[in-house]
Amino acid sequence: MASDSGPVVTRFAPSPTGFLHIGGARTALFNWLYARHHGGRALLRIEDTDRKRSTPEAIDAILDGLAWLGLEWDGDVVFQSERGARHVEVAEQLLVAGHAYKCYATPEELEEMRAAQRAAKQPLRYDGRWRDRDPADAPLGAPYVLRLRTPAEGETVIEDRVQGRVTVRNEELDDYILLRADGTPTYMLAVVVDDHDMGVTHVIRGDDHLNNAFRQLPIYRAMGWAEPVYAHIPLIHGSDGAKLSKRHGALGAETYRDEFGILPEALFNYLLRLGWGHGDREEITREEAIALFDLEGVGKSPSRFDLKKLQNLNGHYIREADDARLAKLVAHRIGTHADEALLARAMPVLKTRARDLDELAEGAAFLFKSRPLTLTDKARALLDDDARAILAQVADHLRAEKNWTIEPLEATTKALADELGLGLGKLAQPMRAALTGTTTSPGIFDVLVLLGREEALARIDAQATPASRG
């Protein structure tokens, strides 16, 4: 029977046929956190037995995505494709012990069987035609597969740590294939052998694998191996409740990093809260997650992926992040001409409202524009004749300011506004257009300081009306 005694060992076992998608990343996270919470080991196995669909690029993408999320694994990565001989060895042991048998049914015979089952509206499953038949009945040298002799009567019960007690009648389980006709092992066999050999105590995976657990348990029992504790997590749905698809955000972790500008700690936190909860807390650090995580907090209902919630959470982590780190990330998005030191100085004012790295990069773009600035349509509309005349006076007053810091610059500008009988906004709006080429930016006095005296005055002069200076 499954037991919680002894050290905890979990595993994440992705198939490298694509990127590390959101569902896989959450499964990896839950396995990693459960092992860390219990002081156990979290292992990584790449299930690359499908050689046609498994690619080195996909393996690299999965490993890269896991590393970006900060999920470090214990021991070496196990590649299932390298363990074929061991899988065959176990299959042969099952055959010798009478728990498996050779099936000589031809593809044509099996198709006739399925056609008859379809016609009778019966479940499609192998009918056991070679289960108790003498292999000598088969033609000499005929190809065969090796099938598991599953229990034909009674029921199998799993006390799932998320789903609760789940029962299946054994008559619903067919004698599935362990070794194909070419001698290669099937997924069902390979997974059980690898989990046993790796010492896995807890199998935490999506609930789309729950049926597999009932098919895999007979191998454990036939071999006399300790059964793992099962925890099958509900799948992730889109915000509309439908099955998660690309339009909902079923994308690779690298897409959230590279295209959406999400920080790894934000995705870590969001995935943690996607189907697991601890009271009303939304923002949970990595250290807190390790201390708090357990399977009892995993819900039974599918969770809903909401990109806006992820972006809002990402905004929180951007505001919490180190400015130099953000500067480096944003500089990479801006290009080779970006000054990281300048970006780091700008971060305190840039990150107050940004929800992702792209918004940070967009907000910082004005720092690296060359003159003459290209104006947006809205900025150009602000710079009418009156505004350009005002800019000339602004430039003259700022040029006289010896202390180029926020407080003196603000005092000088406000004094001019009072002198002209205008609100500060009437000066700030054309100033922003002239300084940034846009109508949105950090505070105008932050912009002046970040650009520096020489560049700021040059930009204002470029848009001012010279004749207005008399």
UniProtKB/TrEMBL annotation:
Residues in Aminoacyl-tRNA synthetase class I anticodon-binding domain copies: 326-462
Superkingdom: Bacteria
Catalysed reaction, written as an equation: tRNA(Glu) + L-glutamate + ATP = L-glutamyl-tRNA(Glu) + AMP + diphosphate
A GO molecular-function descriptor: tRNA binding
Gene3D superfamilies: 1.10.10.350, HUPs
Catalytic activity, EC: 6.1.1.17
Short sequence motif named 'HIGH' region, residue ranges: 14-24
One GO BP annotation of this record: glutamyl-tRNA aminoacylation
Gene Ontology CC entries for this record: cytosol
Subcellular locations according to the entry: Cytoplasm
Record: residues binding ATP: 246
Main EC class the enzyme belongs to: ligase
A Pfam family that the UniProt record links to this protein: Anticodon_2
Motif 'KMSKS' region: positions: 243-247
Domain Glutamyl/glutaminyl-tRNA synthetase class Ib catalytic span(s) in chain numbering: 8-311
SUPFAM superfamilies: An anticodon-binding domain of class I aminoacyl-tRNA synthetases (SSF48163), Nucleotidylyl transferase (SSF52374)
Annotated function: Catalyzes the attachment of glutamate to tRNA(Glu) in a two-step reaction: glutamate is first activated by ATP to form Glu-AMP and then transferred to the acceptor end of tRNA(Glu).
Similarity comment: family membership: Belongs to the class-I aminoacyl-tRNA synthetase family. Glutamate--tRNA ligase type 1 subfamily.
Subunit structure: Monomer.
Protein's name according to its UniProt entry: Glutamate--tRNA ligase
Gene: gltX
